[in-house]
Amino acid sequence: MAHRHRTLTAFGSNLRSERERKKLTQEKLAEKSDLDPSYISGIERGVRNPSILSVVRVAKALGTTVSDLTRRIEG
């Protein structure tokens, strides 16, 4: 199993919460953000370290901000 850094785990949790709040599947979010569904899954599980460009794309697809997706994350 891949090592999970607490920052990535916290970001993934925030992403999942926002996605579920918007009633989107991982597949639909992937489609809207032009990313692969397995990549979205990896981000949510904290095993992927998304680039800032991917974070911006996901935030835009969710109709939210990068700031919102990174709330309560301490380095």
Record the SSE blueprint:
Elements: H1 6-21, H2 26-33, H3 37-45, H4 52-62, H5 66-69
Fold and architecture overview:
The chain has 75 residues and is mainly α. The protein has one domain: Orthogonal Bundle (434 Repressor (Amino-terminal Domain)). The protein has 5 helices and no strands. Helix 1 crosses helix 3 and helix 2 packs across helix 4. The longest helix has 16 residues. The N and C termini lie far apart (22 Å).
Q: Tally of extended strands?
A: 0
Uncertain ranges: none
CATH class assignment: Mainly Alpha
**CATH homologous superfamily?**
lambda repressor-like DNA-binding domains
The coarse overall form would be: globular
Q: How many structural units, i.e. domains?
A: 1
Second rung of CATH, namely the architecture: Orthogonal Bundle
- Helix residue percentage: 55-70%
Distance between the termini: 22 Å
* Rg value: 11 Å
For the biggest sheet, the summary is: none
CATH topology: 434 Repressor (Amino-terminal Domain)
Structural class: mainly alpha
Order of helices and strands: HHHHH
Strand content: under 5%
| Count of alpha and pi helical runs | 5
Q: Taking all residues together, what is the mean pLDDT?
A: 94
Notable traits:
single chain, 75 residues, mainly alpha, 434 Repressor (Amino-terminal Domain)
Give a summary of the structure in a few sentences.
With 75 residues, this protein is mainly α. It has one domain (6-69): 434 Repressor (Amino-terminal Domain). It has helices at residues 6-21, 26-33, 37-45, 52-62, 66-69.
